[in-house]
Write the structure tokens for this entry.
Amino acid sequence: SSALARGAGVLDGAYKSSGKSAEGKKFSGRVTLKRVESSYTVTWLASGEKGIGILHDEHLVVAYQGKSWFGIIIYTIQRNRKLVGRFIPFGGKGKFGTETLEPDDS
């Protein structure tokens, strides 16, 4: 496993989110990541979506669920805790969305 995967709580905290839905609509908001044992809980504050993620090499892989939808997202972890992701909702007809998380130190 990588040094990142061994680093307890390295991704914990609040993030600013921005991206584009699978339908092409732009969005922004806030997301929190919290390490729980060897996984991360992920909460999208505006939509109430929740997810569970695991680290794999330089990636955070997350299954997420909203009120009536679910999907998967894979983030590539970059410098300074920035995460660049690509996601697909179940029933998304093969269309991907994108999301970038940047630490919100405010």
Q: What stands out?
A: The helical segments are 3-6. The chain has a mean pLDDT of 90.
